[in-house]
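Closing statement on the tryptophanyl-5'AMP sub-project.
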Amino acid sequence: MPSSKAPTPPPRLFSGMQPTADSLHLGNYLGALAQWVILQDSHQAIYCVVDQHAITVEQDPDVLRRRVRVTAAQFLAAGVDPARSILFVQSHAPEHAQAAWVLQCLTGFGEASRMTQFKDKSQREGAERASVGLFTYPILQAADILLYDAAVVPVGEDQRQHLELTRDLAQRFNARYGQTFVVPEPHIVKATAKILDLQRPDKQMSKSLGGSGCLFLLDDVKASAKKIKSAVTDLGREVVFDPDGKPGVSNLLTILSALSGTSIETLEKRFEGAGYGDLKKEVAAAYTEFAGGFAERTHQWLSDGSTLDDVLADGAVRARAISGERLADVYRKVGFA
Ligand code: TYM
């Protein structure tokens, strides 16, 4: 007998990336974006270019405008499907900043002060230059997630603490005002959660380390292959996966495994008797193939500008239909007339 029950909708998922560079890097892709594409099959996914987060440090307005579109085009090039998932720009949905204010009023000053990313970034900027926006940044991130009832948030390891804060704020709001927010779970895939810098394999890959150990997906692939070939490796000669003893080699194995879909064990066997140079050659070849196609697809989206704009406009309408309803609920619960 057919069931009279409506099918339960798939769980919601939210994630975002900052448009703060002319290209995403391989850490962004392997740590998050590649997961975004997979998770679309099992979730109602909502993906956001978080331009309001970007202005927590100074941005040139024209450059920011360009980077928002380049970032969105890269989401699409990776395989984010706007027919199934929502793709939009944060500043197109004013509900985020509005909800963030309410959540800021629930956040302890000491609690916000413990965010390690703020401590790192403000040290780099200098305490006097660091903006209050940089300080409250994780609370805006919590608003992004909570407005959409997201059960799952796919991110890299560096976002774990922000997700903990998001969970705490959801629980605090629910305890004070009644059940409102879904308490989200981070989705952090251990193998690729922290791709390391090629020159400084004690640090995560990031543009802020200067770029020589960072693979930007839209860069000239020959230049990137050169970076791979001059990656810092470790003492010894054997190609084995040993993240503590051989972080540089293990990072290259992680990258090759993720790009080729081959397990680390199979790769270790394949490289028995071979040297670091052979490993680097294969990583460079796999990366070149991947990044070449990725850049081509990104440029196609950018050259068809009106389609990209339509995707983002449609995404904003669909996003606001969800976040507007949740914000109204929040406003009513806190006592706004
Ligand atoms: P952002 O823009 O710095 O980075 C985007 C995503 O890339 C991941 N990532 C990495 N993963 C593995 N290895 C690396 N080397 C690496 N570098 C970066 C990040 O963990 C992230 O998932 N605060 C967020 C943006 C944000 C957000 C949100 C994320 C704003 N609102 C709501 C999720 C949900 C950030 O700055 O990411």
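The beta strands are 12-17, 44-49, 86-89, 152-154, 185-187. With this model delivered, the sub-project is considered complete and its resources will be redirected to Aim 3.
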